[in-house]
Amino acid sequence: MHTVIVTAAIIHKEDKILIAQRNKHAEHGLKWEFPGGKLNFGEDPKVGLQREIQEELDMAIEVGDIFEVVSHRYGERHILLLCYTCRYLGQNPVARDCRDFRWVTPAEMNRYDFTAADVPVVKKLQKLLDKKEACP
Ligand SMILES: Nc1nc2c([nH]c(=O)n2[C@H]2C[C@H](O)[C@@H](COP(=O)(O)OP(=O)(O)OP(=O)(O)O)O2)c(=O)[nH]1
């Protein structure tokens, strides 16, 4: 039993956010998530997240502030998911180490089967969007 630290990017392009589909044979295969991955030992989380986005989507990003931290248990495995708000720098993503990716609004996220750990993150994004719509 151990805890794995995972970083994930909330990358905004106008009103859309980039989501990625996990490879078929990976853990939680075919589920949707916020792109990112496991932190290496001793690695700075923001640097680790930039590395993961480069590996997964062949794209450079600027990592900003923490958006949400989720502690989630998948049976005997515990993940601490650090989600950062990130700035899109204009490069088109390439599905290097994921099955697919999409730019979606928070409302559209309901159509995707996200990993269980991501559910509170999706809800938080949707709540923020609703607030924005209520007070333009
Ligand atoms: N990147 C990412 N991982 C997530 C999210 N939600 C969630 O439960 N996870 C889980 C799935 C995996 O168990 C773990 C991340 O592992 P990973 O397989 O993506 O990491 P990695 O790219 O470093 O993988 P590897 O080198 O071990 O192949 O965190 C999320 O939104 N983003």
Characterization of this structure:
- With 136 residues, the chain is of the alpha+beta class.
- It has a single domain (2-134), classed as Nucleoside Triphosphate Pyrophosphohydrolase.
- It has two helices and seven strands.
- The protein has helices spanning 45-57, 119-134, and strands spanning 2-13, 16-21, 32-33, 36-38, 61-74, 77-88, 100-104.
- Strands 1, 2, 3, 4, 5, 6 and 7 form a seven-stranded mixed beta sheet that branches.
- Residues 6, 8, 26-28, 33-34, 36-38, 52, 79, 81, 115, 117-118 line the site of 8-OXO-2'-deoxyguanosine-5'-triphosphate.
Summarize the SSE layout with pairings.
Elements: E1 2-13, E2 16-21, E3 32-33, E4 36-38, H1 45-57, E5 61-74, E6 77-88, E7 100-104, H2 119-134
Parallel strand pairs: 1-6
Antiparallel strand pairs: 1-2, 1-4, 2-3, 2-7, 5-6
Bound molecules: 8-OXO-2'-deoxyguanosine-5'-triphosphate (8DG).
